[in-house]
């Protein structure tokens, strides 16, 4: 009888430990890892451009902003660059701006990022996330990540993975 009671107590303690662990894990998961909420105010960034000058994302307020987080080692990022370049060319006279944000902390060297910009002939502004702050603020987990910000500086769409010019055109057409 004592052994049966002891087994039940052990089983209850084990179940309690498992349930407690699940609750602790569930409450510690950061729900923001899914990305910024659609409709949420965009986070202003202050990042260096190719010339070392500090640029603010807010300076583009009033325009539709396409933020593209990328790195030179990311094959998918490199594959989508021609579409981003074309999108920029077709929309540079409109109120649409594309801004590439290089995840510089993931690069072998910053110079490798510069080489990629030159090799790919990227013609839109590139900012450098030297401390990975922008990537953290915009909850970038996978590359590439594209965030669409409307003229009112609200996040309207975000996408992880390769985007095409057609996809981007549809996303901004809805704004």
From TrEMBL:
Gene Ontology molecular function terms on file: antioxidant activity; oxidoreductase activity
Name assigned to this protein: Thioredoxin domain-containing protein
The species this protein was found in: Alkalihalobacillus trypoxylicola
Membrane-spanning parts: 9-29
Pfam family, one: AhpC-TSA
Annotated keywords: Disulfide bond, Membrane, Transmembrane, Transmembrane helix
Limits of the Thioredoxin domain: 36-175
Lineage: superkingdom: Bacteria
């Amino acid at each position: 009888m004592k052994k049966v009671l002891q087994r039940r107590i052990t089983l209850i303690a084990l179940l309690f430990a498992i349930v407690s662990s699940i609750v602790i894990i569930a409450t510690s998961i950061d729900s923001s890892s899914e990305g910024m909420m659609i409709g949420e105010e965009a986070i202003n960034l202050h990042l260096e451009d190719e010339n070392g000058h500090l640029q603010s994302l807010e300076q583009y307020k009033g325009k539709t902003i396409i933020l593209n987080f990328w790195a030179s080692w990311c094959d998918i990022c490199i594959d989508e660059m021609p579409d981003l370049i074309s999108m920029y060319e077709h929309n540079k006279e409109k109120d649409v701006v594309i801004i590439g944000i290089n995840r510089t902390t993931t690069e072998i060297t910053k110079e490798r990022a510069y080489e990629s910009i030159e090799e790919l002939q990227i013609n839109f502004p590139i900012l450098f996330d030297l401390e990975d702050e922008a990537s953290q603020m915009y909850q970038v987990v996978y590359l590439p990540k594209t965030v669409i910000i409307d003229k009112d500086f609200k996040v309207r769409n975000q996408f992880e993975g390769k985007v095409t010019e057609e996809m981007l055109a549809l996303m901004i057409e809805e704004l």
